[in-house]
Amino acid sequence: MAIHIGTSGWSYKHWKGIYYPDDLAPEDYLNFYAADFSCVEINTSFYHLPQPGTVEHWMMETPEKFRFCPKLSRYVTHIKRLHDPEDTLPRFFEIFDPYLKYLGPVLIQLPPNLEFNPEVVEPFLTTLTSTYKQYDFVLEARHDSWLSEAAMEMLHAYKIGWVIADSGGRWPSAKTVTSRTVYIRFHGKGGTYNSSYDHAELKAYADDIRRWHRERLQIWVFFNNDVGGYALENAQELMKMLKAG
Hints:
Layout: E1 3-7, H1 29-34, E2 39-42, H2 44-47, H3 52-60, E3 67-70, H4 74-79, H5 85-96, E4 106-109, H6 118-131, E5 137-140, H7 149-157, E6 161-166, E7 181-186, H8 199-214, E8 218-223, H9 230-244
């Protein structure tokens, strides 16, 4: 099974001069990024759905084996708060269905005030997994109630991967595996998005990743600490660690 490592987005203006050459046009950022990394999260799909032509352009700009992990629309997670999935989900998947072969897991990021309520969560997961069987899903919860045994058992039952979120304690985190997909998000240790991980911290995760890889799990790792280009540096360092064995 492959180990995929990348960042949570690529179109950051503040990466110009840090990573992207000063003379590189923004429309060429993705192609440049894809030469160094095998995957990326689509963060923009959380805020507004991209046009089909835009998605097609992204797919055509990258190598055949490059993968995109779109974030589910906040209309589904933050506004409707998982209610009425039969009405809220189709528009999102209509955009991405034609490009399924280019996709990794779909990220479901929940708001910090959304507690685990089985009466809401189970109907949502039932609709999601029965209607969109061809997709792989992972869920990032930001309320402590999701660390319960009942929540983890439900994710396992529906084959939804639990997102291992490292945020320096800002949001709940557990190195728990609930599906054949391990999905890790690094938000920054010292302060969300604006701090770097040191060698020892990355090595600890590298050891976990090697173990999960031996268990033949699919592994996805994304760095979201974009400020100062920390995400790029940390992703590249982790890649080197794993390559070195």
